[in-house]
Amino acid sequence: MLEGGLQGAPCNLRVTPLIPKLFPSRVTQTAFLWVGILYFAEGFPFGLFFDAMPVYFRLHGVSLHEIGLMSAAGLAWTFKVFWAPAVDAIGQRRSWIVSCQCLLALCTAAFIAVHPESSMPAIWALLVVLAVLSATQDIAIDAYTIELLDEKQLGIANGIRVAAYRVALIGSGGLFIVVAGLTGWNWAFLGAAAMIGVYAVVCSRAPTPQFTRRQVNTVTDAVVAPFRQLSTMPGFVFVVLFILAFKLGDMAMGPMVKPFWVDREFTPIQIGLVPGTIGVVCTIVGAMIGGVYTSRWGIFTALWVFGLLQAVSNLVYAGVAAMPASVSLMYVASVVESFTAGLGTTPFMALLMRLCDKSHAATQFALLSALFGFSRSISGMFSGWGAESLGYSTYFALTFFIALPAFALLPWIRHALEERQWPGN
User: Fold this and answer.
1) What is the spatial distance between Cα 256 and Cα 314, in angstroms, rounded to a whole number?
2) Same domain, 241 and 191
3) Are 352 and 370 contacting, i.e. CB atoms less than 8 angstroms apart?
4) Is the pLDDT of residue 29 over 60?
5) What are the distances in angstroms from CA 9 to CA 5, 14, 16?
6) What residue numbers bound the domain in which 226 lies?
7) Domain identity same for 190 and 240
């Protein structure tokens, strides 16, 4: 009614309702709702492990050396590709998700029964179990989502994915610690366990994707076929190089951002408020906008546009680092960097999903995301050395140039997207 009335107005302005355009059907709305639910569930234990547990340990007198070694248990997220074929071959994705969540709830509650000052072996065992269960849940959720969505939904869905994941990190990495400070750690662990348990009940109601996987009859079908299929993709080597390189500049700068804030003599409260909270909100907004325009433009164009914006944001930090300390400029740099990180992440994750065969989604997505994780680890490993040797300004500027080689590989990405046709899809 409104649209028709506007068509007859003198300005001849045509207005298309935003929501119906983004969510054309109730089926699509339901799919997007479940993407949000599932990726909140995926992000929550990750934040618990990497954000909350270091605080818990340090407050209980655990040495920095031991806290650093905790990262070894976190290798489960890198090595999950080795057991991903089992998730492809055995049972349904939803069953894996719910089972992992039930066990995660028990594991989280078990921290009430141990104490870092007297039960470190038990603590380490629980950490390893928590990491493996969380990584396995990630495999199943990623595969389920790939089965649930069609190609046209990937852009907006991955915007929702990034936003929900970030909100979960705020909950488990921030709110959980606040609750622990107010009520004690035991109540915080109990509350987190209860929340994960509720999620298990909710996820048991997840709809069954309208997709039938091919039967896996042999070990070769489960393990070899997914890798062999990816290797036959047009321009496979260039696709791998692109996955390694696309967010390299962003990831090379990331570990040095908060140390830069510290060295500019900002207080912990300021750091927690701006890059820690406002920055996360900006990333969520960027991811949602990135999802909308990835759906409108397509993955290839979005990678170009948002990838360039993501790279240019590093120059903003480089410029700020070259100037005298300024609160307002630091805030601007943080907002720009966080917002463009959200923009760039959305089409990148949509690309990884698009490259997977739904029948081998668990294994193939785990492999592609492991490549991305490897790149993140290597770039982060050398970031401190680069910032110390070159200074913040020069190093941040260098990360801009580190990001550029990925764009030379985009023609092969376009070819892979055009030619990629798996029988299972």
Assistant:
1) 12
2) no
3) no
4) yes
5) 7, 9, 15
6) 222-419
7) no
